[in-house]
Design goal:
mainly alpha; 55% helix
C-alpha cells in the first residue's frame, strides 16, 4: 500500500473517511497498525476526514 504522502490532503481525507466506514469497530490502535501510521495521525485524520461529511445542523430560524 502506498503512503498517504503521495496524494493531496483532500483525497487523503476522502479515502480515510471511506476507509473508516469499513473499520467502524476498529480502535485507533488497530487502524494505526493496519496503515503503519501513528495513533495520533489516525486521530487527526479521523477529525479532519469527518468534518466535511458530518456538518452540524446549521438551519437558520426563519
Amino acid at each position: 500500500m502506498g503512503s498517504f504522502g503521495a496524494i493531496s490532503k483532500s483525497k487523503v481525507y476522502t479515502h480515510f473517511h471511506l476507509l473508516c466506514q469499513n473499520l467502524k469497530n476498529k480502535s485507533n490502535f488497530k487502524i494505526s497498525n493496519l496503515l503503519s501510521i501513528s495513533k495520533s495521525r489516525v486521530k487527526n485524520l479521523k477529525l479532519n476526514a469527518h468534518l466535511p461529511y458530518n456538518p452540524k445542523d446549521n438551519k437558520s430560524k426563519s
